[in-house]
Amino acid sequence: MIRFLLLFITLALITGCYCKRSDEVTIPEEKTSISPEKMSEILTDFHLLQSAMKQKQSKREDFKFENRYYHYLIFKKYNVTQEEFENSLEYYKYRIDELNNIYEDVITNLSVLESEIKSKK
After folding, report:
1. Helix (H, G, I), strand (E, B), or coil: what is residue 26?
2. 54, 66 in Cβ contact below 8 A?
3. CA–CA dist 50, 6 (Å, integer)
4. I need a surface site. Which of 59, 78, 109, 112 has the fewest CB within 10 A?
């Protein structure tokens, strides 16, 4: 019985040491197909869309379909696929300085749009 328990503990330790840990992350090495400038423009449009859809959400039953359709239109506008966007977002997620710069541009873009709208009132 003790031998069985010792064998079981040894196997558990060996297996535990050789298994890949679930918190280990593989950072994408390949270059992204979407430049930081284009990514900030796409994300600006996504945030505008998100805000507009939030306003309409309670009023529309076909919200999910409409939301997907508008995302499709944004991808089409910038000539990228959803897969390219997701891969690029994954790429930038591990390059936090670049992602911070992208989001600084997004904030600037949204602030400029807000100023333009306020000046027209």
Report:
1. coil
2. no
3. 57
4. 59
**Domain residue ranges in the chain:** 33-120
State the pLDDT at residue 7.
Answer: 46
Our CA angle for 39, 51, 102, nearest 5°, is 20
- The pLDDT score that the predictor gives to residue 65 is 81
Distance CA 89, CA 106 (A): 14
- Long-range contacts for 9-17 (Cβ within 8 Å, ≥24 apart)? none
Say how far apart CA 70 and CA 67 lie, in whole Å: 5
Q: Are 46 and 88 in contact (CB under 8 A)?
A: no
pTM of the model as a whole: 0.71
> Which residues of the chain fall short of a pLDDT of 70?
1-29, 57-61
Q: Which residue has the tokens 């990228």?
A: 80
Count the Cβ atoms, other than its own, within 10 Å of residue 72.
11
Q: How far apart are CA 97 and CA 118, in angstroms?
A: 31
| Residue 95 exposure: Cα atoms within 13 Å on the Cβ side | 16
